[in-house]
Design brief:
The chain has 4 helices and no strands. The protein is an all-alpha fold.
């Protein structure tokens, strides 16, 4: 089934490319009406993608699922914690060194 779909997609893409390369299509695409139609189509596509993302987020929230944005935020937070943990031995050593100096001055 996937091979059939891939074959159909390849055929559609090759036909579409042939149409786009034709002189008639090039002349048509230069017209203001065609450019306006393409602009409207792209704007509609962008708006649909935005609406789809909102719907996905609402659906995920309703089911208590994490979205990609949630996972990215979590990953960012985890990286910050990992950096702090990696720097912790040096910070502890610095505190110990400062503490030793204070203790030594207290004893004197």
């Amino acid at each position: 089934m996937n091979k059939q779909i891939a074959a159909i997609m390849d055929k559609v893409i090759s036909k579409g490319m042939a149409i786009m390369e034709s002189e008639k299509t090039q002349k048509l695409l230069e017209t203001p009406q065609a450019q306006k139609a393409m602009e409207l189509g792209l704007n509609a596509l962008t708006r649909l993608q935005e609406l789809r993302e909102v719907a996905k987020a609402q659906f995920a929230a309703a089911l208590g699922l994490a979205t990609q944005k949630d996972l990215d935020s979590l990953r960012e937070s985890l990286e910050k914690v990992e950096e702090k943990v990696a720097d912790a031995p040096a910070a502890i050593a610095a505190e110990d060194a400062d503490g030793d100096v204070e203790e030594a001055s207290d004893e004197a």
